[in-house]
Amino acid sequence: MQSLLLPAQESYLLLRILNGSFQALDSLKDQISVYFAQFFNSKSGLDLIDSRSISCDRNEKKEISDGEGEPRGAVFNALDAMLKGSLDRLKTMRESISWGHTGSSDAILETKYSSDITMIRALCLEGKLGTALWLWRTMVQQFRIPDVLTHNYLLNGLCKSGDLGRAEWLVKEMLRHGPSPTCATYNTLMSGYCLVNKVDKALDLFSTMADHGIRPNRVSCNILVHTLCQKGLLEDARMLLEKILEEDGSDGETSDLITSTILTDGYFKTGNMVEALTCWNDVFQRGIEVDVVAYNVMIHGFCLTGDINLVYKSLCEMFKSGHLPDIFTYNTLISNLCKSGKTNEACYVFSVMPRMGVPPDHLTYKMIIQGLCINGDALRANHFLSHMLEDSLIPKPLIWNVIIDAYGKCGDVEKAFSVKIKCFGHISSALQLHDEMLRRGCNPDIVTYTELLKCYCMRNKMEEAQELFFKGIKLLQPKVGAVNMWEEIIEVHVKDGFTVFLHIISWTPGVLAAIVM
DNA sequence: CTAGGGTTAG
After folding, report:
1. Is A262 (CB) below 7 Å from strand B?
2. Which of A224, A359, A389, A447 fits a 20 to 30 Å CA distance from A403?
3. A192: in domain
4. Where are the PPR repeats (predicted)?
5. Which of A102, A119, A148 is the last residue of a domain?
6. pLDDT tens track of chain A, all 517 residues?
7. Pick from A102, A128, A159: which residue ends a domain?
């Protein structure tokens, strides 16, 4: 409880600041400087600058070191740190006071500890690493060291966000001050390396783990095998696996469904169906129980090889073994049906999903709408769009673009005058879609405008095209992509393209820059 | 969901 008490002078200053009793900014500055000098000279027990403290923001850290040559900067940096520290302590104090009457202080500290580590873990899962690290630092400064699990959550968050620099730093911190890294810690860092394509570093870590007294496990192995498979290095993956298993000795743990799934998937994706099936049969021969993911890999594999009968056969086997299809299964199936032009079957499968307790997701809609549009069925695609909106799923620009494009393409196929009139109607539908996008807070992107321009250009409606072009430029805040729109006009209508070019020349420098790029 | 496998692709 001692650390909760505020030194008298500090609290006095703090109170005065909070009460706003300083009359002028200058006097504030002076008092701060004086206080700051006293603070440093007296070397009071405040743990403002802890050796373990890290900066959540790198610039912040840089400022502090830059400030050495500039006393005023240093003063304010230190003041920031001081105020923050004081506020933190006040918060802690207030919390403990409000709980003080209900239980013993040990119980309070324990509750606080577990609520803090729960908070860190939740923040990491939400990807709020800055806040998570801040809370971590706060705890460390109060000598309340989070457990390994929490450290691993932090590490995982850093790795998933691609911040390998801080991930490495965190592991070093753990080695220096504890808690000691576990196998999961090293595995997390390994998969982080793989994520940013530093496979050599991952391999390096794999072979040096033992130096820290941690033996790589099955997960470590799978991480590497998976990465090698992703790169198409199937043979290397297989060799590595064999080598590891050899060194490991036969502790009966040679069969791992996940390893087999990774390899099967890898073989299917590189077009080696024979090896894929060998892998799969191997699993069955060993009597390993197969799970939904493994079935999905098989179903996807047969989709790739075009064996629709084997796809359905696998589905039947899946049902027979008591596994129900999940969202991946349905999406794989729908994707395949759409690609082979069987949109009716795809729509049927779609209708089955909610009844089987698996509601369609963004991907399902995307594939079915795209499939219908490729088939020229803009009307039905639009129907699914409404369905999607009813499901409270906000379509990404791509979906809108695909439908706009489908409307535009109608004119390409049918040339009769009467149909042309109908297509003009579709142009207005396209514009309606565009307006609906804006209304729903979905920003049209460069492709949206390019598609709309195509609609106009195909029908020689160059004035509208130009108008839309400028509208798009304005809304998009010119990017490199603007060149696409520009090219679209030129390509379709060379002569008028020159007129547009003249218009652009007289446009703002920002637009010009975009065009020149 | 402390770490490892599966669905798309303007």
Report:
1. yes
2. A359
3. no
4. 147-181, 182-216, 217-247, 291-325, 326-360, 361-395
5. A102
6. 334 333 444 443 333 333 433 334 444 444 545 444 444 444 433 333 344 444 444 444 443 344 444 445 554 555 555 555 555 655 555 554 444 455 567 788 888 899 999 999 999 999 999 999 999 999 999 999 999 999 999 999 999 999 999 999 999 999 999 799 999 999 999 999 999 999 999 999 998 998 888 988 889 989 999 999 898 888 888 887 777 777 665 444 556 899 999 999 999 999 989 999 998 998 888 888 899 999 999 999 999 999 999 999 999 999 999 999 999 999 999 999 999 999 999 999 999 999 999 999 999 999 999 999 999 888 899 899 989 988 888 888 888 888 888 877 765 443 333 333 434 455 666 666 777 777 777 777 777 777 777 667 666 666 777 777 777 766 665 554 555 555 555 444 433 444 444 444 334 444 434 443 3
7. A102
We report the CATH number of the domain holding residue A430 as: 1.25.40
DSSP string for residues in A289-332 = PP-HHHHHHHHHHHHHHT-HHHHHHHHHHHHHTT----HHHHHH
Distances from the Cα of A138 to the Cα of A96, A113, A202, angstroms: 16, 11, 31
Residue A332 CA distance to nucleotide B6 C1' (Å): 9
- Kindly state whether residue A302 falls inside one of the protein's structural domains: no
Strand B nucleotides below 7 A of a protein CB?
Answer: 1-10
Q: Which residue, counting CA atoms, is nearest to the C1' of nucleotide B10?
A: A398
Q: Are A253 and A215 in contact (CB under 8 A)?
A: no
Distance in angstroms: CA A411, C1' B6: 40
What is A389-440 written as a DSSP string? HHTTPPPPHHHHHHHHHHHHHHHHH--SHHHHHHHHHHHHHHHHHHHHHHHT
- Within a domain: A249: no
CA A32 – C1' B6 distance (Å)? 60
What total of structural domains would you count in chain A? 2
> Tokens 């049209």 belong to which residue?
A444
Which residues of A spanning 427-446 put their CB closer than 7 angstroms to strand B? 445
A36 touches strand B (CB under 7 A): no
The Cα–Cα gap between A37 and A56 comes to: 27
How many Å apart are A221 CA and B4 C1'? 8
H or E stretch at A15: helix A8-19
List the domain range (segments joined by +) for residue A452.
394-517
| Distance in angstroms (rounded) separating the CA atoms of residues A427 and A404 | 8
